[in-house]
Amino acid sequence: MIDFENRSNFEFDINLLKEIYKYLTNKDVELILTTDKEIQELNKIHRQKDRPTDVLSFPLENMPGMPLGSIIISIDTAKKGANEFTHSTQDEIKLLFIHGLLHLLGYDHETDNGEMREKEKEIIEKFNLPKSLVIRNEL
User: Fold this and answer.
1) Which of 72, 73, 94, 128 has CA atoms 20 to 30 A from the CA of 41?
2) 110 and 99 Cβ atoms separated by less than 8 Å
3) What does CATH list as the number for 2-138?
4) Max Cα separation, the chain?
């Protein structure tokens, strides 16, 4: 189940993420849609980076019955990304959800040998999403 909390004024249908979610896991996940202001504060506290970011993931300890963790997406940054890569904000949220969920599942593009990027590419192709997440990560 995706436990969804919308802290923004952007209308988003959580059902748009269910197929992706079911493809990757059967463990519960929390998704929070927020603003640049809030995500910047979280980024500063947890990563010592005083700037907004698109998505943050907070995994929980892997124990039976426990959720995987939380994914926080900035709608402000998602809108900018959608505009920059010329696709819908809904598609940008899907791409950021994939990225965040893969982090919760243990993938880490900063330390792996491209496994996370390959998994992102696989999911993007399977769900016929815009290739912008793959393209921007190759830059």
Assistant:
1) 94
2) no
3) 3.40.390.30
4) 41
Residue-wise pLDDT for 77-133, tens only, equals 999 999 999 999 999 999 999 999 999 999 988 788 889 899 999 999 999 999 877
| CB 104 within 8 Å of CB 57 | yes
pTM attached to this predicted model? 0.93
Each residue's pLDDT tens digit, 19-59: 999 999 999 999 999 999 999 999 999 999 999 999 999 99
Q: How far apart are CA 88 and CA 98, in angstroms?
A: 16
Strands 69-74 and 55-59: antiparallel
The answer to whether the beta carbons of residues 74 and 34 sit under 8 Å apart is yes
